[in-house]
Amino acid sequence: MVTKRELDCLFNPKSVAVVGVSSKSEGIQLGGASFANALLCSGFKGNVYPVNPKGGEFLGLKIYPNLKDVPEPVVDYVIYSTSASYLPQTIKDCAAKGVKVIQIYTGGFSESGTEEGKQLERELASLASQNGIRVIGPNCVGVYCPKVGLSFSPDFPQEAGSVAVISQSGTNSFCIVQEGVERGIRFSKVISYGNACDVNESDLLEFLANDADTKIIAAYIEGVKDGKRFSRVLREAAKIKPVLVLKSGITES
User: Fold this and answer.
1) Alpha-carbon separation of residue 185 from 139, 174, 216 (angstroms)
2) Which of 4, 36, 164, 197 is 20 to 30 A away from residue 203, measured at CA?
């Protein structure tokens, strides 16, 4: 279970490093370049640090060969978007840099259905926990919080609203925001949390229930980590504000 303070750090980072940004990228394709471009286009209020061993430059920003080369003493938030094989070392680098949260876009973990993928996910969760780092994902697009300029798409509005969304699916996170915007809806926070090897749906729901910026909570959920806890948290949240949950996987299709 994560504390409110730890999730506050998720939504209020002062700096973000994006691991896996190539100098050859144009900032429009999926991956590290897309995340860095989204932060720049969304008016993120902190510093953005692209990271890639080959170095170079991306949209006017220096690309640092290693997370530890970033000049800022502490980096609050890391978006990881490169090969899963480099992840253990990156988590160690995160620990050296005082990172509070790592969001992992990369797939190939438990969602693959392979024992190798499941074991790799257990290892990354354990390593992050040992170093006091919270994990969003893996296999997710992360956080959209317009109040501070966090976004996983350059096209999302910078105007904040009062609707929060948690979604296990990254694609549905995009679609919900896009469809909502067309209908005049603005969002306080949207979180794609993927495999939830650490921060899960109950943690996020509990936080949003007490979030002053959120008046309505919506969720797209495929499965839950702890059914009893989720049921309790859902009942408590619904006493405070409206909660709408779409549970997938309940029909044959």
Assistant:
1) 26, 14, 11
2) 36
Instruction: Give 68-93 pLDDT, tens digit per residue.
Output: 999 999 999 999 999 988 999 999 99
Please, is 129 exposed, middle or buried when counting C-beta atoms within 10 Å of its C-beta (0-12, 13-18, 19+)?
middle
Rounded CA separation 40/148 (Å): 12
Q: Which two tokens stand for residue 55?
A: 């170095």
Q: List alpha helices for the chain, DSSP H.
A: 4-11, 32-41, 87-96, 115-130, 170-182, 201-209, 227-240
Q: Tell me the mean pLDDT in the region 238-249.
A: 95
In this predicted model, what pLDDT tens digit does every residue of 149-175 receive, in sequence order? Answer: 999 999 999 999 999 999 999 999 999
Phi, psi of 19 (to 5 degrees): -90, 120
| Rounded (5°) CA angle 192-35-164 | 30
Give CA separation, 106 vs 20, 30, 85, 124, in Å: 10, 11, 10, 12
Whether 230 has a pLDDT exceeding 80, the answer reads yes
Compute the half-sphere exposure of residue 46: CA atoms within 13 Å on the CB side of its CA: 22
Instruction: Using alpha carbons only, give the angle 87, 89, 90 rounded to the nearest 5 degrees.
Output: 60
Task: Round to whole Å and give the CA distance between 167 and 177.
Answer: 11
Amino acid at position 40, single letter? L
d(CA 39, CA 166): 20
Residues with Cβ within 8 Å of 95's Cβ and at least 6 positions away in sequence, in order, are 131, 132, 133
Cα 165 to Cα 149, 188, 210: the distances in Å are 17, 8, 14
